[in-house]
Amino acid sequence: MLLLSCLVLFTLPSKSQPLQSENTSVLPFLLSDLQEGQRLAPYYLQWHDESDQATLSDALVALSDNRFLQPKVYHSQGLQKGAIWVLAQVNNDLTDTRQLVLEYVDHQLIDFTLYTASEKQGNYSLQAYLSLTQSFSTRQLAHHRFAAEITFEPKQTNWVLVRLGSDGQGFIFPNLRLWSPDAFAQQSSREVGLLAFLAGGCVVMALFALVTGVSTGIRYFYIYSAYSVSKVFAWGMITGVGHRFFVTDNFDWNYMSLAGGSSILFGIWFTRVFLETRRHVPKIDCLLQIMMANSALLILAALLKIKLMAVLCITVAMLLYPINFIAALIRWRQGTPQAAVFALGWGLLMAGLFSQALRDLGWIEHNLINYYWPPVASFSEVVVIMFAMGMQVFQLRKQKEEVEYRYARHLEHEAVNLEREVAFRTAELEVAKRRAERDAQTDPLTGICNRRSFFLKATASVEKANNDGLNVSLMMFDLDKFKSINDRFGHKTGDDALKLFTQTVKQYIRANDVFARLGGEEFVLLTCRDTQDAEKLAEQLRIATTQIELRCEKGEVKLSTSIGLAHLATSSHIDELLVRADNVLYAAKDTGRNQVFVAS
């Protein structure tokens, strides 16, 4: 509907429409019937000067030719070229002088010229000339719309002739209001207060968005902050408040175009970033990019003061404005809940602009409600969109918390797995350590103590025996002619013979005995026994060795061993025992082998 109204709005013919009747009489307006803010309709006639060049003399000629007619409607007559002259008869039927304020009802006017006379065809004197191009300080009354004071003498008829100019082409609302000065001042204060409230709200939203953007680093908060400020700038320029308080001198229409272009540019930019249209609705995003380019062109036209280009750009912007609303609806259907709130906010703005379009077209009557509806709707859009951004931030925060929760759970799971892995690896290392220690102390072929571990264990056993007064004996074994076994039957058979010998000895020894292989075919046994038991054990081991049977492919292998035995003496050391046992071992081998020799 808004698109249709905009199409109608900007395609209206420039020629005046037949909105005037043939009635040239005008009813007098009696000040005794005055109500504050009362409009002069239907107490006036109007004449449309299409050339926009008519002077006061031309207007008086038109008045004498009865070209001032009573209008059929008393609000906007659409987009028109030229100026409109309004004639009203005001009678002060009271007994006192009245000073009243004559106010134009809308802000879409370039200049306002007021003449008064005591007779309809009399000598009209200039009472006020007001224009946007003038310094605001030259105005009689500090008001953001055109207003001028008129003095009505008692019992006197006044003819009020007003020229309403739009500088070529524009929307003119040929209606005027009468106020007492006090009531006018109060109404002006209320309107300025409303606009200040709306502007202040937008500024607060802009500051809040800026602070939120700094704290969160989210880009669209910065854009929204600029968008809110641009709205203050735009509506301030459009309603005339900017001319009153800020740009008091050298005001020009290009400020309104510049403000409107900036607001549209930031609004479209915010829409693209907030709704992520480039990623989710690329076709709509292309149209939004066109709108941004058109807004930039509008700003350029305002800076270069190219009015035709500015009007064209504003027309295109109005036609494409509902695309933001469509983009929000599509994103909502795609599953983005905050897009629905965004659509609501943009819908409020479009409703305000739509009401302004209907008012400008003259399809609805101009009043304070629909006059201020667009800026109020624009402010409401800012508030609603801020709420939508809050929803999105809340959703992002919730997603962040969910991610952090999942990450924490993942860390906990990984910590448990790590603990298990560490425990497993520690157990493996412990096993490897024990294996390494065992390998370091064990002969790899026979599985008994090696030379290093023997000395450690034997030294401890000797020290304990010395302390406890126990008997300790040490035997040294040497397998007889073992080299010939390796040479004749092979090293594997020799290794098997060493293993069988080890297994045989282990059958006769105790758990606390220390049995070790010193190297090659040499073995040693440290045992805590009486000397007689030790000698008896040595003989048993010699005999048992001869009974070992080992068969291979090359025949049967016979084993025998020579044993040297030494008993512990007072304060003996293991090295001393080894030397003594080794000496008698060699004696046993030298005297025929396969026998036990005991050191004296």
Description:
The structure is a single chain. With 600 residues, the protein is of the alpha+beta class. The chain folds into 3 domains: 14-179, Immunoglobulin-like, CATH 2.60.40.2380; 188-396, Up-down Bundle (Rhopdopsin 7-helix transmembrane proteins), CATH 1.20.1070; 451-598, 2-Layer Sandwich (Alpha-Beta Plaits). Helix content is 55%, strand content 17%. The chain contains 17 helices and 19 strands. The protein has helices at residues 2-10, 56-64, 181-216, 219-239, 241-245, 253-275, 277-280, 282-304, 307-320, 323-333, 337-361, 368-441, 451-468, 482-489, 491-506, 531-546, 574-590; strands at residues 29-30, 38-39, 44-49, 79-81, 83-92, 98-104, 111-117, 125-131, 147-152, 156-165, 169-171, 176-179, 473-479, 514-519, 522-527, 550-552, 555-557, 561-567, 596-598. A hairpin with a 2-residue loop joins strand 16 and strand 17. Helix 6 (253-275) packs parallel to helix 9 and helix 8 packs antiparallel against helix 9 (307-320). The chain is rod-shaped. Mean pLDDT is 86; it is low at 1-18.
Q: Which terms would index this structure?
A:
single chain, 600 residues, alpha+beta, Immunoglobulin-like, Rhopdopsin 7-helix transmembrane proteins, Alpha-Beta Plaits, 55% helix, disordered N terminus
Report the major sheet.
Answer: 6 strands, mixed
In percent, how much strand structure appears in the residues?
A: 15-25%
Structural class assignment: alpha+beta
Please mark out the parts with pLDDT under 50 across 5 or more consecutive residues, or reply none: 1-18
CATH topology of the largest domain: Rhopdopsin 7-helix transmembrane proteins
Round the mean pLDDT to the nearest integer and report it. Answer: 86
The separation of the N and C termini measures 129 Å
Number of beta strands: 19
Helical residues, percent = 40-55%
Form type = rod-shaped
CATH architecture of the largest domain: Up-down Bundle
Q: How much is the radius of gyration in Å?
A: 57 Å
Q: What is the highest CATH level, the class of the largest domain?
A: Mainly Alpha
User: How many alpha or pi helices?
Assistant: 17
The count of domains is 3
